[in-house]
């Protein structure tokens, strides 16, 4: 059996994946391969770097530091200047780069990780998904996490990249391509919340965006080959399509609650799975 962890994107809600990973560790479920998108790529890269201290504890500490500090450390003056000068993003990537270098070290490469790891970004010039399977780790993670308008595109070898969630938000198909026969999906709660027909004008755009973002995941779940064991861990925090918390991307005050809620929900799920 080849076990894959598939970690989806979701900005600050990526904290719930920490709770899921704690639960998987407590049930002694270890991955053979990890694929991730955006914040899921960042979380997954820490778990793949398993040679030193407990990677789940190290990831928890990273999220604690993020909650206590400000990942988007661009000053109000700089943000106002970016908007006034019509630059392509409100924030820069320096805060995120420093956090990643703190946990991984400068100059780390994907091939240095202990568990097979890949992350996805959206190529602007080619308008396709691009998978980083080798080369420098930090630029790949920055590319996979470059949320349009919030963060600028990341240039690597003359090509520019945006957030991988634009092309493959929860990349279970990549896990299958890498030979996974057991897949654990770690997602931030959006795909748990049901959609409905819009009742107001602004909801039409929100629901359309959710359909565009979810459709590939739903299609790939239906296409899973026979014999592939599939589990989607519960977040303990379903995010409705019109949840206004999504507008507060800099607010990480509920990080501890998100981690604990996902941990408890996932422990219950894995316990019931084990009993059957």
Features:
276 residues; eight-stranded mixed β-sheet; 9 helices
Structural class: alpha/beta
Looking at the chains present, what oligomeric state does this protein adopt?
single chain
Strand content: 5-15%
Global shape = globular
Distance between the termini: 18 Å
Stretches where pLDDT is under 50 for at least 5 consecutive residues are 79-86
Total DSSP helices: 9
Largest sheet: 8 strands, mixed
- The Rg value, from CA coordinates, equals 18 Å
* N-to-C series of helices and strands: EHEHHHHEEHEEHEHEH
Mean pLDDT: 88
Commentary on this structure:
It is a single chain. This protein has 276 residues and is an alpha/beta fold. Helices cover 41% and strands 14% of the residues. It is built from nine helices and eight strands. The protein has helices spanning 15-26, 39-48, 55-68, 76-84, 94-104, 137-144, 172-177, 201-222, 255-275; strands at residues 3-7, 33-37, 116-123, 129-132, 154-156, 159-163, 182-186, 229-232. Strands 1, 2, 3, 4, 5, 6, 7 and 8 form an eight-stranded mixed beta sheet that branches. The chain starts with a strand and ends with a helix.
